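Input record, target 12 of the design panel.
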């Protein structure tokens, strides 16, 4: 399996945004409707035929990239809703938020800060990282 990066989920050539098509990270494997995905990908655009078509095109491209990279079983699609099959993915984020996390040290205080939808996730990760009874210092 090729290494991945936020802008390049399968290690191949990918358009920015392909990484966010699967599911909002805070959903940890829950199904996402096209409308939910569109509101995350293009938060200032309305849901219409154009954005629905754009979403479908990106979803098909992501599937093609994953398939051609020999990576299957990561995305499940039921009636147009998509989810990450978290059991089939090795991911620091999923490891960190799991109940039996041994990777609490992995979060360094910022998570996808360039996306407004990640603000809640950053706050949750900060709370999880803070030792009980202690406040985190924000610099």
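The sequence produced for target 12 reads:
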């Amino acid at each position: 399996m090729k290494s991945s990066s936020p802008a390049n989920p399968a290690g191949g050539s990918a358009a920015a945004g392909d990484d966010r098509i699967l599911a909002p990270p805070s959903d940890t494997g829950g199904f996402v409707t096209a409308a939910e995905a569109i509101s995350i990908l293009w938060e200032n655009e309305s849901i219409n035929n154009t954005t629905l078509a754009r979403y479908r095109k990106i979803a098909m491209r992501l599937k093609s990239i994953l398939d051609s990279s020999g990576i299957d079983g990561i995305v499940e699609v039921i009636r147009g809703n998509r989810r990450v099959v978290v059991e089939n993915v090795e991911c620091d984020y999923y490891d960190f938020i799991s109940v039996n996390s041994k990777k609490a040290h992995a979060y360094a205080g910022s998570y996808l800060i360039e996306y407004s939808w990640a603000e809640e996730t950053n706050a949750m990760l900060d709370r999880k990282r803070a030792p009980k009874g202690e406040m985190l210092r924000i610099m």
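The CA atoms of residues 17 and 41 lie 7 Å apart.
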